[in-house]
Hydroxyethylthiazole kinase
Amino acid sequence: MEIKYIEKVKKAFEMVHTKKPLVHHITNYVTVNDCANITLAIGASPIMADDIREVEAITSISSALVLNIGTLNERTVQAMLAAGEKANKLEIPVVFDPVGAGASELRNRTTEQILEKVQLSVLRGNMSEIRFIAGLEASTKGVDASDADINSGLAAGCSISETIAKKYGCVAAITGETDIVSDGQHTLLLENGTKLLSGITGTGCMCTSLIGSFCGATEDFLVAAAGGILCMGIAGEAAAEKVGKEGSGSLHKAIIDSVSNMNAEIFTKRAKIHEA
Amino acid sequence: MEIKYIEKVKKAFEMVHTKKPLVHHITNYVTVNDCANITLAIGASPIMADDIREVEAITSISSALVLNIGTLNERTVQAMLAAGEKANKLEIPVVFDPVGAGASELRNRTTEQILEKVQLSVLRGNMSEIRFIAGLEASTKGVDASDADINSGLAAGCSISETIAKKYGCVAAITGETDIVSDGQHTLLLENGTKLLSGITGTGCMCTSLIGSFCGATEDFLVAAAGGILCMGIAGEAAAEKVGKEGSGSLHKAIIDSVSNMNAEIFTKRAKIHEA
Amino acid sequence: MEIKYIEKVKKAFEMVHTKKPLVHHITNYVTVNDCANITLAIGASPIMADDIREVEAITSISSALVLNIGTLNERTVQAMLAAGEKANKLEIPVVFDPVGAGASELRNRTTEQILEKVQLSVLRGNMSEIRFIAGLEASTKGVDASDADINSGLAAGCSISETIAKKYGCVAAITGETDIVSDGQHTLLLENGTKLLSGITGTGCMCTSLIGSFCGATEDFLVAAAGGILCMGIAGEAAAEKVGKEGSGSLHKAIIDSVSNMNAEIFTKRAKIHEA
C-alpha cells in the first residue's frame, strides 16, 4: 500500500516536470519569494498577481490556484474570492492555506468565506488552523500551531482531517511532526521532515506551493497533497543532514537546493508514507 | 560596568529562548522575510499582519510590536497607529524604526505622528534618521545615513540619543560604526559589527526585529536595545570572518546562521559594550 | 568594435562605484529583496517607495527610476505614472520592466499607459513581452517567455528591438539566450548567461535593477543596458560554474555574490558582446 502511493507520487512528480504547470498565487508578502522559487525548483512556473482587475485573467491561463492568507487585506481577500470562483468555473484546482486561522476575527471570517464560496481541491494547514476550521477548541500561536494543539494526538488529527475532507469535499492536509492527508475515504500518514523546518519562516507556505504545483499536473489531489508534503519533508531532511549545523540561513538555502534536485530515486529511498 | 551589561544581555537572551515571544510586525515588503527569519533565529516567533481590521487583535496576542515605515502607505500607516495605540493600552512594548525619515514629507509626517500618538519603548534609526527626529540638520541618502551625518561625531550622537530618550520617554538607539543606546540616564556604546553589513539590505530592519524580540522577553528596554544591536553586530562580525570574501549573498545567509547559533558564551567572548 | 563596448561598460561600471547612485524602485513584492541586494552589490543604493504621496519626492532625490509591473495594482500603477512623469521633468532616467505584458488586459493597458506617458531611457523585457509591445503575435506564459516566442529567431529579435527603440526613443533590450540591445542605430548582441538562471525567480527583475544602477551613473543608456545585462549574465555564468550542481538555492545566493565581486578584469575576461 505504501509502495502504491510512492509510485503514484513519483508519477505525479514526473508530470510536474513534463507539464511545467503555471501556478497562480495570491499570497503573502513575507514568504512570496520562497514560494516562487520552490515552485520553479519543483519544475512548475509561478505567477503572482493579486489585483482584482486581473486575477480572473491570470487564473484562466493557469493550471492551479494557490490562496494563502498570511498577510491578507481587504483588497487581496476580494481578489482571492474572485480568482477562486473563476477557478471553480474553469475546473482549475484551488489550494488554500488558511495561515493564522484562529488568530483574528479577520482571518476567521476570511477562512469561512473562502470555504463557503470556493470549492477547494486541497486545504493545508497546521493543527491549530485545521482545528479552528473543524470548530474545535484551538489555541493558535499567531501563525504557528500551539503546543496544546500539536499534542492533541494523531488519532484525533486523522479524525479531524477525514471530517473536514468530507465536509468540504476536498483533500484536507494537516502538517506537523507526522503529516496527515485525507480525502475522506483514505487517510495517509507521512513521516518525513525535521523539527528544524520550524526555524524557517514559510515552510508551510512553500509546502502549499508544492501541493499547488502537483495539483497543476495531476487530477488525483490526494496524491498531489501527499507529493507536495513529501517533497517538503524530504527536502528538509536532506538539507538538515547537509547543513543543519551551520544554521537556519544555510538550511533555508539548502531546502530550495534539495527541491531542485528531487528525483524519483530520492522518493523511493526516503519517502515514508502509509495509510492510517 | 561593561560586564554588568553583558550579563544582563545574556540573561535577556535566555529569556527570549524561554519565552519565545510572539512579535507582531507591521513592516516593509523589502526585508520582511529577513525580519521574520531573524526573529525565529533569535528564538522568538514573528507574525506579520497589517490590515486595520486585525492589527489590534494581533497586537493583543503578541508580546511586542515592531513598526517599520520602510515602504509605508496610507493603509499601513493607519494600521501602525491603531496597533501602536492598542499596544500602549495593553502595556505591550513598541519598537519603531523610522526608515528614511528625512527623505520625504510623508516619512517625516508619519514619523511625527507615530512619535506623537504612540508611547515607544525603543526607537532605533541611523544617524540621519535620528538627527531628523531631533530637529537637527540631516542629509539622508534615501534609507541610508549620509556621510556628513555619520561624521557628525560620537559626542554629538550621545547627546542626541540622550535628548531624544528624555523627550520621548523611550530608549533611543542610533546604529552605525559605533552604536549608541540611551535611556536618558545611561548611554551605552557598542562596538561590534562590520562595514560589510551596509552591503546587505535590511540589516537595520533585522536589528529592529531583534530588539523587538528582546522587548518581548524583558522589561529592561535599555538591555533589550543593547541585546538586539549586539546580536546583529556580533552576527555580522562572525559572518564576515567566515564568508566575507565570498560576497554579499553568502554574508546575508551567514548572518542568519550566526544569529541562530548565538549563545551566552559568544556574548561573553565578543560583546564590546561600555558606558559613554 | 567588441572591445570598444567592453571598455565603455567597464568605465560605466567604475562610475557606478564612484557615484553610488540612489535608484528609486517601484517594483513587485516577489523579487524586491533581490532587487535591493543586487543594487547594493553593484555599488549603487536602492530605495523602494510606492505611495503616491511620496514617489515624486523620492524620485527627485534619486539618480534613476526603475518601474516594474510584476505585481502591479491600482495604487502602484498611479504611483509609477506620477514618478515617471516627475523623472521626465527632472531628466532622471527611467527604466521599465513590463513583467507579464501580454498575460492580462491590466498588464497590457498599464504597459501602454507607461509607454505613452513616460519617456523611457531603457525598456527591458523577455521576447514575449517585447513582442507584445511591438504589436506582434505573442504567447506569453505568465511572466516567462513562451517557447514559440523564444524560437522566433535572432534576426527577428534584432529587428523588433530596433523598431521599438526608434518608436519610443529609448534603448530596447530583449533578454534571453542571446540578449539583444538596441538604441535604434546600433544593435548589440550579448552572449553571457546560463540556462540555469531561468530556475530562479527575479533574474529578469534583478537585471533591470542593474540597468537602473548603470543609468544612474552614465548618460549612455545603450552602454548602461549592455552593462546591466552583462553583469547579470556573467554573474550567472560564474555562479553556475561554482555551485550550479548544488541546486537553485545555492545558485541564487552565488549570483548576488558574483555581482558583489564584479570588477573590470572580469568584464575583460568574460564579456561576450558584438554588434549585430
Remarks:
- The two ends of chain A are 11 Å apart (CA to CA).
- Strands of chain A lie at 22-26, 45-48, 64-68, 94-97, 122-125, 171-174, 179-182, 187-190, 273-275.
